[in-house]
Amino acid sequence: MPLRSLRQKVLPGFGLSLGCALVYLSLLILLPLSGLAFKASQLSLSEFWAIASGERALASYRVTFGASLLAALINAFFGLIVAWILVRYSFPGKRLIDSLVDLPFALPTAVAGITLATLYAGNGWIGRHLEPLGVKVAFSPLGIVVALTFIGLPFVVRTLQPVIEDIEPEIEEAAASLGASRLQTFLRVLLPALLPALLTGFTLAFSRSIGEYGSVIFIAGNMPLISEITPLLIISKLEQYDVVGATALAMVMLIISFVMLLAVNALQWWAANRHQAHAASAGERR
Amino acid sequence: MFQVIRQLLVALAAFLFAGLALAQSVSLLNVSYDVARDFYKDYNPMFQKHWKAVAGETIELKQSHAGSSKQVRAVADGLDADVVTMNQASDVDFLAEKGLVAKDYARKFPNNASPYTSTMVFIVRKGNPKALRDWSDVVKPGIQVVLPHPKNTGNGRYTYLAAWGYALRQPGGNDRTAQDFVSRLLKNAPLFAAGGRDATTTFMQRKIGDVLISFESEAELIAREFGKGEFEVVYPSLSILTEFPVAIVDKVVDKKGTRKQAQAYLDYLWSAAGQENAAQNYLRPRDAEILRRYAAQFPAIRTFTVDEVFGGWAKASSTHFKDGGSFDQIYQQK
Q: Which N-terminal stretch is annotated as signal sequence (chain B) (predicted)?
């Protein structure tokens, strides 16, 4: 079976399109990244380690990855609800809400950062109600989470929407008629089907957040060891014309991100497989 | 077929000729820092008129504005700037190091190649409720100071060095007391703004902090934006003289053959008209006569330069802002 499918594809042009894809990816992604690695390789291992494990650098990894993770989790939860509402129900203003979701894609991130900082500052519309409760959002690590949640939302919603569209309402009705409670229907029937897409959306939102600079610096407060993100430290090094030091930090981010993305992809693959296996065994039983 | 080819050739020749004709009209690119926009918007038409009168040549002037170290990196990477007009010598030093600008660029023009100056001042709330008069008041416990990131922005670096220099010049001042003084200043900062304008917004619009430290010229922009009644400007007893060096990018003008025009463009900054324009943009002119005429807007203030106290920007950068410098030390002591 696999042999035959390798030899004669029904669709023509495999060789050509693979070649195009590889050249394109090499030019666009691999070339700049190898340039980065080459620049960083000008450092000896101990120098590299000294930069990568500096106190400010370590604190910035915690802030960057921690805030990105939190923001992506929030988006995974609320993004699912938004996507669900937009696909499954019709209500006045639905179109408007649907187009609102894309706004974080289109808005220049600096504008988003400045607006959010103004809203969440002590005298802002939202901040003025939070500050008396002792919650400081703008100019604290919490502000970073807010900014990253804002820019990450469309990734989750737009990944989930087509998948939810594919799940027919009849499946839910069938589950209900077989005696499943609403929670059971959601957990045992819907969630397994949605999980791969949810993980993809989560991953996209998360990786977008790690590299985000423009919106974060306006709301973070940028205090060393507390609310400095790694991209800020990279800019800091570039300001001192320390290009090699900057690439060292970039390499660290790249490696951590790559490992995390690989892990999430593995998880996604596992979830998709499990779902398919389930579906297949259910089919056999029928 | 031949006809098509011939037509194509004709079109190509016409295109090349048009390109040649375009290249003949002289144009200069001035790569500059972010907030110089207003200054050169007024200055460029003045120079165009002047150059038409003395050389009979129409000159096209293009401007590029962004964060100064970003701009300088672009020039080093091949942006064809005829002249650079910056807000910090370390940026031009970087180009000199790369061989694009003369090593002694600071002596190619008068006044350290800086046609105008400014200084760091305090902007406080109306009526100065916390009675902040000098740097020693600003570092008192409980005062909130707003300033841009001291390591990442030119504005913040000048503030940092101004406080350091002030502490050094106090009785018994040395590097240890200065570092202690600056660390008290930074401890009073609830945040580090992303840039000069961001610091202004944070202080004026979001009402955060008791004092904003910024360029004297920025205070005037705040007045235009928010009205004069909202704040007061306080001049400390001693501050830093901020210089704005200009330079010709040798490599580019030699290639383009625009040295004569570039030289004239920068020379004209020191003319009466150029100096007057600086004063109107709230930058202190070098010309003593014009400075006197605008004395009302430029109160006398004692200042020191980066060269005097820190032995130049290169040294200041490596002791204070490079990795493990005094800024990093302040945060790693805690």
A: 1-23
pLDDT tens sequence across A59-111? 999 999 999 999 999 999 999 999 999 998 999 999 999 999 999 988 999 99
Q: What is the ipTM of this complex?
A: 0.80
What are the angstrom distances between the C-alpha of A89 and each of A95, A100, A186, B221, B331? 12, 17, 16, 51, 53
The reply to whether residue B202 touches residue A217, judged by beta carbons under 8 angstroms, is no
DSSP for B186-197, please give it.
Answer: HHT-S-EESSHH
Tokens describing residue A105: 């894609």
Q: Helix and strand tally (H, E) in chain A?
A: 16, 0
Tell me the nearest-neighbour CA distance from A125 into chain B, angstroms: 11
Q: For residue A173, count other CB atoms closer than 10 A to its CB.
A: 11
Contact B113, B246 (CB under 8 A): yes
Q: Identify the CATH number of the domain defined by range A52-277.
A: 1.10.3720.10
In chain A, what are the domain boundaries?
Answer: 52-277
CA dist A139 and A156 (Å) reads 26
Judge whether B310 is closer than 8 Å to chain A, CB to CB: no
- CB contact, 8 Å: A217 with chain B? yes
Q: Are residues B101 and B62 in contact, defined by beta-carbon separation less than 8 angstroms?
A: no
